[in-house]
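Archive entry. Fields below.
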Amino acid sequence: MTAADTSSEVTPRPDLVALTIDGIEVSVPKGTLIIRAAETAGVNIPRFCDHPLLDPVGACRQCLVDIPDAGNGRGFPKPQASCTMEVAPGMVVNTQVTSPVAKKAQEGMLEFLLMNHPLDCPICDKGGECPLQNQALSHGKAESRFEGVKRTFPKPINISSQILLDRERCVLCARCTRFSEQIAGDPFIALVERGALQQVGIYESEPFESYFSGNTIQICPVGALTSSIYRFRSRPFDLVSVPSIAEHDACGAAIRVDHRRGEVMRRLAGDDPEVNEEWITDRDRFAFRSARGTDRITTPLVRDGDTLRPASWPEAIDVAVAGLREAISGGAAQTARRGTDSASGRVGVLTGGRLTRENAYGYSKFARTVLNTNSIDFRSRPSSNEEAEFLAHAVAGTGLGVTNADLEQASTVLLVDFEPEDEAGTVFLRLRKANRKSGLKIWTVAPYLSRGSVKMGAGLVPTPPGAEAEVLGELPAEVELDAGSIILIGERAATVPGTLSAALGLAEQTGARLAWIPRRAGDRGAVEVGCLPGLLPGGRPVADASARVDVQAVWGSETLPGDDGLDAAGMLTAAAGGDFALVVAGVEPGDFADPDAVRTGLENASFVVSLEIRRSEVTDRADVVFPVALNEQQAGSFVNWEGREREFEAALPDKTTMNDLRVLAALADALGGDLGVRTPAAAAAEIAELDRWDGDRAAAPTSTISGSGDQDGAGDGELALATWRTMIDASRSNDGEDALLGTARRPVARVGVRTARDLGLGERVMVSTTAGQLELPLEVVPDMVNGVVWLPTNAPGFSVTENLRVLAGGTVSVNPLDSAEEEGEDK
Amino acid sequence: MSEQSVDLLTPVLTRNWGDERAWKLSNYERVGGYAALRKALKQTPDELVNLVKDAGLRGRGGAGFPTGMKWSFVPKDNPNPTYLVINADESEPGTCKDIPLMMASPHTLVEGAIISSYAIGAEHAFIYVRGEVLHVARRLQQAVREAYSAGYLGKNILGSGVNVDLVIHSGAGAYICGEETALLDSLEGLRGQPRLRPPFPAVAGLYASPTVINNVESIASVPCIVDNGKEWFSSMGTEKSKGMTIYSLSGHVKRPGQFEAPMGITLRQLLELAGGVRDGHKLKFWTPGGSSTPILTDEHLDLPLDYEGMAGAGSMLGTKALQIFDDTTSVVRTTLRWVEFYKHESCGKCTPCREGSWWLVQILLRLEAGEGVEGDIEKMLDLCDNIGGRSFCALADGAVACVTSAVRYFREEFEQAYHTPAWELFPYGRSALFASSKEGANA
Amino acid sequence: MSGSESGPQHHFASHFADSGGVDFSGDQSTNITEETREELRQIAARYPQARSALLPMLHLVQSVEGRVTPAGIEACAEILEISTAQVSGVATFYTMYKRKPMGRHHVGVCTTALCAVMGGDQILSDLQDHLGVGNDETTEDGKITLEHVECNAACDFAPVMMVNWEFMDNMTPDSARELVDKLRADEEVTSTRGATISTWRDAERVLAGFDDGRADEGPAAGPASTLGLEIAKEKGWQAPAVPAEAPADAGQEEK
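PREDICTED_STRUCTURE:
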């Protein structure tokens, strides 16, 4: 931006329309609705049904204005709804400010809206932040002339386990039903009945189970929609609101955290047009209390035989230092050997998705400067070496890449191993919007069109699990990719050899841009700060000496380890051998491909330091555990999938709870080193100082296509497994949110029509491997690839990794469970 | 104008209603049916549009918009198919002309539909007929089957290369679906609530495609215009209201019924034909075109029943549904019943109509019971002011029109409602067409 | 009847406890078979876009089920690939869709202003007394569901009643009682301008677009419909003669 740009502000732009509102001349872009043009003139026209992100409807009639001149010299004889009419050059608009007609019309409308309203503001959740209440005061008459009988309904009804509807309070603006239909694509609530009896309703046996249902509460202009977890819990004027960033996926959605007396009471969507617009997922909104249980760790713990006992910080640090020092040195004095670039010690760091970028940075730096190792990996999930190479080559240090806005402008979007609705909710909403508004063509490389894909209008590139790389190599002709196209690839691509390489090749060949969308909030930040064996902060390859020198300069360290570190699998294997120590944070064994291998690694490790917020399978196997702060208790940032830094302040600043960074700094001190940073701000400053690597990028992965998952012969019930995690699943961060979990999709096994017929599958099936089995209802999907079965990865009580020990692309047996058998079992 | 030379009644659309089995294709053909179609297929669509435009045919569904002009709004460069939708949702209280037309001579409408489809370039037409008229649905469905068999519908009609498919679609009980955009939503399988305009149906109507929506009588008038020419048509009627049309007389007249006459006949003339108001009674008030048109009184007997004549009297021609009420009738009661109708039929979409009709009914119930309180009339009028012209569609305008016009002409009767029930002022049994033992006992 | 809503009402009573959806209580068995589904699909196939078929499909559901049932809603939703809430929104919008089990016959009495004044109000109240049912209620023998209906476009035959949506013109309390008595006794009843009365369910099937072969029953028009025509015939009145053909067509080209 240069100074010269300012000159454009005074030249009238041809795409602007000049009109007069209450005597004030304003210029607004063509197509602007009067109600928003008035805002630029400082006039707030009252409204209920109007919402900038929903299609105009003109239903509530609250925003009537007088238009004495429509721009053609003729006026409208009657007041017009300003929320549906676009501006015109020369138009004259008189709002309630200058027009008695408009004022009377608006007062009349409020009187109508209030006559059947229960006026129960003192017991209403919305009281104090209610557009009806506010506008009744600012634009209504003091008294109603209504003397008759009000319309009454039975008090609130549950329209899902999470959402309640009080029909008496509803003003029938239809924001909620329009949101569900237009934005989320989940029309499970609809206007029912007619006339004065019209109301929002569900179909009794198909409740309002949408991943985005909570948004309707937020946009409801009255207290008609409430959530079971917030209902009657607090008054808006007792709450302190802090903007923050949601931590349940990699979207980086803006949220608002409302707290009272040291406890978060609710979370709302923030307004960030570039990221999540005004919408968030139900998980981001409703899942925030998992750390309030009795398993929250509040003091350090040290191992005492088979048990962990509370310990003082000094004692715990002493224990940790002793254990780590041994691992770092291998029992010998290591300090002398520092600087020789020799093999790292027998210690490594495993981090997980809950970490902020600043905390992840602490681990990255701690590993290199204190533990003297490159053995660090944030991928506490199925991963591959190809993925590490892909991240180093195409993701780390690339800054802001493909953006949400780019998705709306794209010529085509190709999804690979990525289910936006389940894995990145607000990306799903953006893609659906682009498809709905401008017909964006979306293709998905998947075994079937999921409900989310259908809602995005996506086309299917039929792909059995495991065949992704092959399919990317020879896409059907109708999938036309060009320089305006975008390929979105999910983290699941890591488990299918060749897929990430093929996607890179496809991008190069077509000019399409590529973006990687991990599932967890901390993943992209972890990549950026070097929580990978081969990467230092800013996307610097460890193997590149000049990259190491860059980092050394900022860190003030003489040398950094330059050897190959171990990745997560390598570290766990080493630990299983018994002569390897681990520093672990935010890791759940169940998230890995082989949870038992993780458990064995933790159990056999020479020493385990755990930094954690709650008791877990890791803390249970640790030698020393340090409690760390919740995200709501600390400042920090996430880097979302776009590469956008999403900073947030502490919602509940708590000086007594140490965050990961602070604990690591203390450990570093005690180990005779110096982490150099002990606050998120200092870490952020150092990350900024390090900046992005501008040298040669790591080479692209060159994995070749493995044998594809050609599963045509569905013999003996052997099917290829397709699976991903649904949004509302058995993740520990959903713990305690029963109302939310009540809206989760019921676990089912899905197969195609032919597969179901070939295998004679009925209403229920048994899915099994040598490791175990799961019983599930069957859903037959019309266009699903033959020889494939889909299961949710981690539905409550149905864990694919724990129960079946298999990953996507693996083989499972699917057999009918006929009712006769079930009855037999019952007897 | 040629008014002098034209007879008082001019049966054209109604001419075969008395025929034996008039609804059968063969009988329709016997009286010249489908000749207009053959003639039309020899003309270009543009010629037909101009013919209807020049004939001066105005929409017979109430609004009186020039039919040919409506047709000409269909964009020629729109990539989507064009649709013709015929509004046969005749539900405006008092209106009863389209139903007998479709029952007696469904082929008149079918022929009109085919010609009109050809004129506007539609290959798909729909007749949206209200659901509560079973026999009309039967006759229409049969007429369509007959027309397909005869090659008047389907592919390559009469070898012309023109294709038209016609679907009879039964509604399910909702007055609002007579509003054209609500009808479109209903025809798309949605709740029949009016749509935002623009876009107008001519550009984005059914399935967001160009759509012409016309009333039954308008479309049924097309064959005779094609047959007889625009001069013939415009030789009937008045300066701006051309042609013949069906007037429906109902209520306290000796002989209620349908009268097809040139536009501009007066109520006095029609009443004379109907044998006048019931013996021993005088005309009290009447509607020119259904309950949505403001009521008029005996002052207005000599006004021409055309668009301009009625607008000049502060009312509207509407559907030419002349509901006649004699001096036994309570205006308060009648107004209440009309407003109750609008309350029942309000779709619920917009606030003033949904809530306002709820409120008005409560006030009117009080007034009917003689329990009105000082200020009720003013409050009611003010509510009408807050409803009329503020609602999403015209339904609520109709609801308040009957209230405001009733107060305009019979304010004293509403004032009496502050102390005396309507049934005491106007014993209800006296308005009935039959002697009432019950009512007598109560009185 | 007007008075019934005006009585003293408790402010905290719920007036619409049952509103909002179809009835899930009671017997949930269904008559919908694969044949019904096939017919539902046939209806959907009549339209360029299948959802247009929802209204006639719900009519068919009523003819099979005797009301709109959950099973019927679910079948429509499944075939049209829309949500059940969307179908429910439509099924509860239109007055012809019934959520309570219907009697064999639907008897409607028009009580919109004109018919009400001409005697419809009295006919309705007489019938309620005679049948012992209130509005929208079914007689104990299951023969008749009585409802007051809005203007049925037969005002020149006021007061009007409808039986299974067939016209019963120029009714009186006596003729109304006689009519319902015959219906309850399963005697043959013929519409004044329509076919012999069958059942409400049969009527619903016709409204779904399935022919019942009765189109040729009944007259072309009732006496009021042809009144003007008869008078014109009597007086020798007619529309103007058609001008010579040539100028009409030529005029067209000229423009």
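CURATOR_NOTE: Residues 199 and 368 of chain A are 62 Å apart (CA to CA).
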